[in-house]
Amino acid sequence: MVLTLYGVEPSPQVRAVRMACKAMEIKYVFKAVDIVSGDLKTPEMMKMNPEGNVPFIVDEDYVLCDSHAIVTYLADKFGNDRWYPKDIKQRKNIQQLLQFNNTMLNMRLKDIMAPLVHENVLVIPPEKMRGLQESLTLMESLIHDEGWLAGSHPTIADCCCAANVSCCVGIFPELKMPPKVASWLWRCAKELPGYDELSTFNIKEILAEVAQRMG
């Protein structure tokens, strides 16, 4: 049975999984879901994914949610040591970076976008934008001297963080990019498999949704 990934195409978390799959040359079938139409609330979907979150994968009889859990699972299963090293210290460093991505980048971006897209709240509180800016500023200290988040070559941490950072600066160009973060994102655009293809779609779709909400 072919691995199946369910998700919403504009989602940074979905894009992170897709970039990681491309990087590790993992074949999968992508099934887009329409959250607004209630695709995730059907009996079939609720049985597979009771929490109703995306992305999630179905690998034979195994269902797994959460982008970070998915990319680490796939790296372990397909044995791609380059993108998720088995060395315990390197692995823990990557897990720490994924935690930063979740708590600082993903949650702060989601805190801005969710009310805008789902609740028609069109005014973004300044403190939320400051929080997002602080996340990018903090990220400057996390980038390795060799140019990537975890060392001399990209890992799944770069895939996951790049999905969020590119979304942040694409939607909010007024954000100030720290120098190392800007260089790192440029490097991601040049070297991460699938970055351009998936990033362009992601940002265009989100901007279109925002424009529609704002009339």
UniProtKB/TrEMBL annotation:
The GST N-terminal domain, residue ranges: 1-82
Domain GST C-terminal stretches: 87-210
GO biological process: glutathione metabolic process
A GO molecular-function descriptor: glutathione transferase activity
UniProt cross-references to InterPro entries, sorted A to Z: Glutathione-S-Trfase_C-like, Glutathione-S-Trfase_C_sf, Glutathione_S-Trfase, Glutathione_S-Trfase_N, Thioredoxin-like_sf
Pfam families to which the protein is assigned, alphabetical: GST_N_3
Name of this protein: Glutathione S-transferase 1-like isoform X1
Organism: Thrips palmi
